[in-house]
Design goal:
The complex is a heterodimer of chains A (247) and B (509). In chain A, α3 packs across α4, α3 runs parallel beside α6 and α4 packs across α6. Chain A has one domain: 3-Layer(aba) Sandwich (Rossmann fold), CATH 3.40.50. Chain A has ten helices and ten strands. Chain B starts with a helix and ends in a 7-residue tail after the last helix. The relative contact order of chain B is 0.12. Chain B has 23 helices and ten strands. The longest helix of chain B has 32 residues. In chain B, β1, α2 and β2 form a beta-alpha-beta unit. In chain B, the strands form three sheets. Chain B has a five-stranded mixed sheet with strand order 7-6-8-5-9. A three-stranded antiparallel sheet of chain B has the order 3-10-4. Chain B has 509 residues and is of the alpha/beta class. Chain B has three domains: 170 residues, Periplasmic binding protein-like II (D-Maltodextrin-Binding Protein, domain 2, 3-Layer(aba) Sandwich); 93 residues, D-Maltodextrin-Binding Protein, domain 2, CATH 3.40.190.120; 201 residues, Orthogonal Bundle (MetI-like fold). Classes of the chains: A alpha/beta (247), B alpha/beta (509). Chains A and B meet through α2 and α3 of A and α20 and α21 of B.
Chain lengths: 247, 509
């Protein structure tokens, strides 16, 4: 479904020397699979996620979606076929919950009734009663509620792919646990190809089918939780596992 | 964009209140004597030619008057030979003979500017340095040379024009070797009060100024012949005289009709007795036989403002400000958006707007009135006000857009909004409040700055303030200043309300 082939990303800040954020990464995500990109800060996991919806262009290499090079696709169409959720939800503070969720529907020219129905459906999915929440503004929501609305917004156009960048990163442990459980529920309900970024190993193993560990811009290992536990690729992976096992 | 341009054009046309050609326009400067002489010129031309006559009083200084004359915005105004010699011709050498001064000025302005000097009115109004009588006596100061010896401890307050002009303070200082403890530039009308209050010791004065009679003052003798002669005469555009030769005969009636005592009396009648300029001029002209007794006009009450005039000036003031702020917003908001993510353009545009704001308003006005299509009209005032209003709006548009959290823009882009949709749906709504605050600031500033419109006769509440200043009439000053301050407060409140109403609900605190 999604295929990253030999991608290197270098940043050149003006004057300074080029920084290699991703170094020759190759990765595949199957249809309906949930893949979690994991790694410490500066490992390149977010950059890797942003390759998929072209928020980041590769310096060399190629990213494809269902065999089509994403560089050849219209970025707007591409992005609307992929839900995008960022930390704390990234909700627009000047729009209420229903307008945040319905924004893309409106831009796609949906009728008001269809948008209305979709908003209700999504609020139902993320367990926020429309009666109470539809007309609230982000400033009137808790962190967990913001995150749920962020997920609902990402699903508005029913995209086949959903990208999540540290979706539960800013939440307290109890809310996080709660939302992770719900995530599992709606994941099975909606059947999406999901790529997410996390720095939390337990979250990754809990939510994802496979995990990709990045270290200093290189792909250290890709596999299931069992693969990581039983067959760590190298000493660095082993060390990361022990360090984060109880995080 | 085209509809914006059309709107701007409509607004510009709406301000085009003054017709281009037609009446004989007399100008005069923003002090009592000049305005009386302007009235005298205007009434004489009106009585002895068939021309329609208009008097544009309160023009802000020599430079502005001369530029207006050159550009044909006015046809004539009363000027002084020494002033023309020093300021217009830029001469700095020594000249003492009145006739030689007059002839030189007449020849040179005819050659260089096609401006004719008609026969002088007959009196001289020179500059003098003035001290408090008892203070001068105590220090034993009779002449400017004496002042040079004791000046080290004294403080001087000079009018701003005098501080800067060729025949003013810098040359006088060099000529006499003067050295004061402190020299400050002040509004001329306020220097007398400052002297009376002991804030300053020396000021510059006109020799026909009635304030010399009202305060116990001593005018110091120009013992080293620094000042050129300053005889007043009508300066008239050559082109106007060729088109209407009858003007020469009409204005010849004013040849040597006013002596110094008569001029001081007229200044006194306006400044001390509070009589209207028109009446004082009219009465003199009838007495001097220039006008027939039947040309005598009914007396006007005084220089004070009627309620209707005040309302009219307030409306003019509001109109000037409104047009200027609307134009500035129509320019600055789109430009602010266009430069939002372009470093070089951003620096250039903000630099331009900041520079505009540093240009002294009188210099800007003096330039604008020579621009074809602007002239001595509301348009020049609106143009200047617009330039001054650009910066707060541009800066706030820029700050507002730049202040939108980058993760929100990232979220919008990642969702698949186009750059235009990001701007319209996310950035602009989030920047609304800051942009409106900029418009509010610009409006409040403009209401203050619009008082300068009076300097080019474009009306507004600056008119009574300006006149009140040189008439030393506090109530007249306040009748302009209080409404202007109230307008600024009201605009601030009103736009504060608009700001709250237009701020998206989720952003209000």
């Amino acid at each position: 479904m999604i295929r990253i082939e030999g991608v290197t990303v270098r940043f050149t800040a003006d004057g300074a020397e080029a920084v290699t954020a991703l170094d020759d990464i190759s990765l595949e995500v199957a249809e309906g699979e949930t893949l979690c990109l994991i790694g410490g800060s500066g490992s390149g996991k977010t950059t890797c996620l942003r390759l998929i919806n072209r928020l980041q262009e590769p310096t060399t290499g190629r990213v494809s979606l269902r065999g089509e090079d994403v560089a050849q696709l219209d970025p707007i169409r591409l992005r609307r076929s992929m839900g995008y959720v960022i930390q704390a939800g990234g909700l627009f503070p000047h729009l209420d919950v229903q307008d945040n969720i319905g924004l893309l529907c409106e831009l796609e020219g949906w009728t008001a009734e269809r948008t209305r129905a979709r908003i209700d459906e999504l609020l139902d999915l993320v367990r926020l009663p429309a009666v109470d929440f539809a007309t609230r503004f982000p400033a009137e929501l808790s962190g967990g509620e913001c995150q749920r609305v962020g997920v609902a917004r990402a699903l508005a156009l029913d995209p086949p792919v959903v990208l999540l960048d540290e979706p539960f990163g800013a939440l307290d442990p109890i809310t996080r646990d709660h939302l992770q459980t719900e995530f599992m529920a709606w994941k099975s309900a909606v059947d999406k190809t999901i790529v997410m970024v996390s720095h939390d190993l337990r979250e990754a193993f809990r939510l994802a089918d496979r995990v990709a560990l990045l270290q200093d811009g290189r792909l250290a290992q890709v596999g299931t939780a069992d693969d990581f536990r039983d067959r760590p690729a190298n000493a660095h992976v082993e060390e990361f596992m022990t360090r984060h096992a109880h995080a | 964009m085209r509809s914006l341009l059309r709107l701007a054009l409509l607004l510009a046309l709406a301000t085009n209140a003054v017709a281009q050609s037609g009446p004989f326009v007399v100008g005069s400067k923003n002090f009592t004597e000049s305005r009386i002489l302007g009235e005298i010129l205007a009434q004489t031309v009106a009585a002895h030619t068939d021309l329609a006559v208009e008097h544009r009083a309160n023009l802000g200084g020599t430079l502005l008057c001369w530029k207006a004359l050159e550009a044909g915005q006015i046809d004539a105004y009363p000027e002084y030979t020494g002033t023309a010699w020093a300021v217009v011709l830029g001469e700095s050498g020594k000249i003492t003979d009145p006739l030689q001064t007059f002839v030189t000025v007449q020849r040179e302005t005819r050659r260089r500017f096609d401006v004719e000097w008609l026969d002088p009115f007959g009196f001289e109004n020179s500059y003098a340095l003035v001290m408090d009588e008892s203070r001068a006596a105590e220090l034993g100061v009779q002449s400017i040379s004496d002042l040079a010896e004791v000046g080290g401890d004294l403080r001087a307050g000079f009018s701003v024009e005098y501080l800067n002009r060729e025949d003013g303070w810098p040359s006088l200082r060099d000529h006499y070797g003067l050295d004061f403890a402190e020299v400050r530039g002040m509004e001329h009308a306020l220097t007398y009060e400052a002297l009376a209050a002991g804030e300053i010791d020396v000021l510059d004065a006109y020799t026909t100024d009635v304030k010399l009679l009202r305060y116990p003052l001593r005018a110091l003798v120009d013992d080293l012949d620094f000042y050129p002669p300053y005889h007043a005469a009508p300066a008239v555009r050559g082109a106007t005289l060729r088109e209407h030769p009858e003007l020469r005969a009409a204005l010849a009636r004013l040849s040597f009709v006013i002596d110094e005592a008569q001029m001081v009396r007229m200044n006194h009648a306006v400044e001390v007795d509070g009589r209207a300029f028109e009446d004082v001029a009219n009465e003199f002209l009838v007495e001097a036989g220039v006008l027939q007794p039947e040309d005598r006009k009914g007396a006007r009450s005084s220089t004070g403002l009627s309620a209707a005039e005040l309302v009219n000036l307030t409306l003019q003031h509001l109109w000037l400000t409104f047009i200027a702020v609307v134009l500035a917003a129509l320019i600055a908001i789109p430009v602010g958006i266009a430069i939002a993510r372009r470093r070089t353009a951003e620096r250039f545009a903000l630099g331009f707007a900041s520079t505009m704001q540093t240009i002294p308003s009188l210099a800007l006005l003096a330039f604008l009135i020579t621009v074809p299509g602007l002239g001595l009209s509301t348009r020049s005032a609106v143009f200047a006000l617009t330039l001054y209003a650009l910066l707060p709006i541009l800066r706030n548009t820029h700050t507002g857009l730049a202040g939108v959290a980058p993760e929100l823009i990232d979220a919008a882009r990642g969702m698949g909004l186009t750059e235009r949709q990001i701007l319209m749906r996310v950035q602009l709504p989030l920047a609304t409040r800051t942009i409106l605050a900029g418009v509010r600031t610009a409006t409040v500033i403009s209401i203050g700055v619009a008082t300068l419109a009076a300097f080019i006769g474009a009306g507004g509440l600056g008119e009574p303030i300006l006149t009140g200043l040189y008439l030393n009439d506090v109530s007249l000053i306040l009748s302009g200043a209080i409404p202007a301050a109230l307008l600024a407060l009201a605009a601030d409140r009103l736009l504060g309300g608009v700001e709250r109403a237009l701020t998206p609900r989720g952003l209000r605190d």
